[in-house]
Specification:
about 80 residues; alpha+beta; single chain; 5-stranded mixed beta sheet
Length: about 80
């Protein structure tokens, strides 16, 4: 099973909020996730509130071959997880 770590859009119109989740490669953007690894809020004022991650679970999925999307890869780099 090929897996990807990517964003799932939540929130209201003009107020985006994303969950960082693991999906099967061919599933829809807002489809059923295998596991939720954290959140990303691009509208948060404080940088510490923008991203929350379960670091141990992210590393687990990366070790098992999950590939992050380009956006998630940038978020992980900003939080000290180099892919």
């Amino acid at each position: 099973m090929a897996t990807r770590i990517r964003l799932k859009r939540m929130g209201q119109r003009n107020r985006p909020f994303y969950r960082i989740s693991v999906f099967e490669q061919k599933s829809q953007r807002d489809g059923k996730a295998l596991e939720t690894l954290g959140t990303y809020n691009p509208l948060a004022d404080d940088d510490a509130d923008k991203v929350t991650l379960k670091r141990d679970r992210v590393l687990h999925w990366l070790d098992n071959g999950a590939k992050p999307s380009r956006t998630v890869q940038n978020i992980l780099k900003q939080n000290g997880i180099h892919v």
